[in-house]
């Protein structure tokens, strides 16, 4: 009875909170909760032909609190439908929240594997975390396993910081990785099971050498091409020049994994997204064999002016991953997102000569694809200014610094609460810098250089700052293909 009540209570709180949510930063085509707080994407899966995404959710306020799992689904990765909250913390082993985790299809039973969180001493950061499961046959209503937690205690190599299980099947076994730490060494540990209930501990898959963070959160592990990739979100990597600028990072290591010896030999940690707001990414593989990633489009402790409007947090667009021959992950928006295009906007610019060109476009939801030709470039900087106002006091700049070959996003004038510049060094194969930009009411996602340089940032401009400009400084740059589309608001459409 108690469990039903907690879910109903949460739904009711959400219904009331929804009434108070105000509009100006609400996103038009990204996953958000109806109201309240969200962080990590959880349980990404294609189940019975539909894409399901769960997320860490606090339906009772716009601040982080005892974690629930919110839930949306979609037939096409573009149009999302809210479903009832899937998990609420009802049991002693998860009394302080149902933390992040993953989902598998166990012969038609949608099985969520998540972390039961207990704060032993929150001030001292002492936690007692365990791994739990919940199952559903309709993909909507979940029953927690009576035998939870299925892994009640961390191994010797870990500690009570023991969270974010990601499970997958290989041949006839299930495998699980979990993020943990021992003192100040972040790591990912590996388990194996026949039935998702009894788990055998296999050892450490990968760990920090002392410079790559004190805790590794939200691991994901998969084969891509002939390689294995471990994605994770390390806490505690020191900033190094322009690298590792955010409070915490999200990145990957590429290597070779042998299921017989359980050895994973791997290379350097590389960041996955260079913007201000990208964390806790998770992936799924779909029935087209695509490896699709979705991240939390925020960062812990970032300014979130939407809290004044009763909500906080959103997820990134779904991105298809691929691995280049030199061991880098490229991320590109899934092709289904073309369905968002409502109208193509005609624009002819073939050259920018030490000027800012006002396109006359005034829109909140845009997709921009542009090729800057670098062959004869004489400008030392060029790019696009988004969400500009008339006197230049508000703008978000997506630019390219020619001498350093760095792509950047500059939020110094991007609206309420935000600031800072993030940069990403571009290594071009040919002489064209292609940018593919998705602009939503309070977010920008820049995919450049075939998905090798991605920058994701939240912005909070004034509703009247709607201009779009192209600029070049101290010289010229030529433009090849240029396409701009006004995009649909999927949430307004579904009302
Ligand atoms: C990552 C994280 C996870 C944890 C969850 C709690 O952002 O800290 O490690 O499970 O958020 O909401």
Structural notes for this entry:
The chain folds into two domains: 37-333, Tachylectin-2, Chain A; 337-494, Jelly Rolls. It has two helices and 37 strands. It has helices at residues 2-20, 490-493; strands at 36-47, 50-58, 68-74, 80-87, 98-106, 109-116, 119-121, 126-127, 130-136, 143-144, 162-170, 173-182, 185-193, 200-207, 215-224, 227-235, 251-258, 263-266, 270-271, 279-285, 291-296, 311-312, 319-323, 329-333, 341-345, 351-353, 356-362, 366-373, 381-388, 396-401, 406-410, 421-425, 432-440, 443-448, 453-458, 467-473, 476-487. Strands 25, 26, 28, 33, 34, 35 and 37 form a seven-stranded antiparallel sheet that branches. Strands 27-36-29-30-31-32 form a six-stranded antiparallel sheet, with no helix packed on it. Strands 4-3-2-1-22 form a five-stranded mixed sheet, covered by helices on one side. Strand 7 (119-121) and strand 8 form a beta hairpin. The two termini are 32 Å apart. The model has no long low-confidence stretch (mean pLDDT 97). The structure holds beta-D-fructofuranose. Beta-D-fructofuranose binds next to strand 1, strand 5, strand 11, strand 15 and strand 20. Beta-D-fructofuranose is lined by residues 39-40, 56, 67, 99-100, 115, 163-164, 217-218, 279-280.
């Amino acid at each position: 009875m108690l469990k039903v009540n907690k879910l109903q209570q949460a739904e009711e709180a959400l219904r009331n909170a929804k009434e108070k949510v105000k509009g100006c930063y609400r996103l038009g085509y990204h996953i958000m909760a109806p109201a309240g707080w969200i962080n990590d994407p959880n349980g990404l899966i294609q189940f019975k032909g539909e894409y399901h995404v769960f997320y860490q959710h606090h339906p009772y306020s716009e601040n982080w609190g005892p974690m629930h799992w919110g839930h949306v689904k979609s037939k096409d990765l573009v149009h999302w439908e809210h479903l009832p909250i899937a998990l609420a913390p009802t049991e002693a082993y998860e009394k302080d929240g149902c933390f992040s985790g993953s989902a598998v299809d166990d012969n038609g039973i949608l099985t969520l594997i998540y972390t039961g969180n207990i704060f032993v001493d929150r001030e001292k950061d002492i936690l007692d975390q365990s791994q739990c499961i919940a199952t559903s046959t309709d993909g909507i209503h979940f029953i927690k396993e009576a035998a939870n937690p299925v892994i009640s205690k961390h191994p010797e190599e870990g500690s009570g910081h023991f969270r974010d299980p990601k499970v997958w099947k290989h041949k006839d076994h299930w495998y699980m990785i979990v993020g943990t730490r021992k003192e100040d060494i972040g790591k990912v540990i590996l388990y194996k099971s026949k039935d998702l209930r009894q788990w055998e501990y296999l050892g450490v898959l990968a760990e920090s050498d002392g410079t790559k963070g004190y805790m590794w959160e939200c691991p994901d592990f998969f084969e891509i091409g002939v390689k294995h990739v471990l994605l994770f979100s390390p806490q505690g990597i020191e900033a190094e020049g322009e690298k590792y600028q955010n409070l915490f990072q999200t990145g990957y290591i590429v290597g070779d994994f042998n299921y017989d010896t359980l050895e994973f030999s791997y290379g350097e940690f590389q960041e996955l997204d260079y913007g201000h707001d990208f964390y806790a990414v998770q992936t799924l593989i779909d029935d087209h064999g695509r490896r699709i990633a979705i991240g939390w489009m925020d960062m812990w402790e970032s300014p979130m002016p939407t809290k004044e409007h009763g909500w906080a947090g959103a997820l990134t667009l779904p991105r298809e991953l691929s691995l280049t021959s030199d061991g880098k992950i490229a991320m590109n928006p899934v092709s289904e997102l073309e369905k968002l295009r409502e109208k193509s906007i005609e624009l002819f610019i073939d050259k920018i000569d030490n000027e800012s060109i006002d396109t006359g476009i005034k829109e909140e939801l845009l997709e921009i694809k542009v090729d800057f030709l670098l062959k004869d470039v004489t400008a030392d900087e060029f790019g696009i200014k988004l969400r500009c106002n008339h006197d230049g006091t508000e703008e978000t700049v997506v630019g390219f610094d020619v001498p350093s070959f760095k792509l950047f996003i500059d939020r110094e004038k991007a609206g309420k609460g935000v600031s800072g510049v993030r940069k990403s060094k571009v290594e071009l194969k040919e002489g064209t810098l292609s940018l593919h930009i998705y602009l939503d009411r309070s977010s920008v996602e820049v995919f450049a250089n075939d998905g090798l340089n991605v920058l994701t940032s939240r912005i909070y401009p004034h509703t009247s700052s709607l201009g779009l400009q192209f600029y070049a400084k101290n010289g010229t740059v030529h433009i090849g293909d240029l396409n701009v589309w006004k995009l649909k608001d999927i949430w307004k459409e579904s009302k």
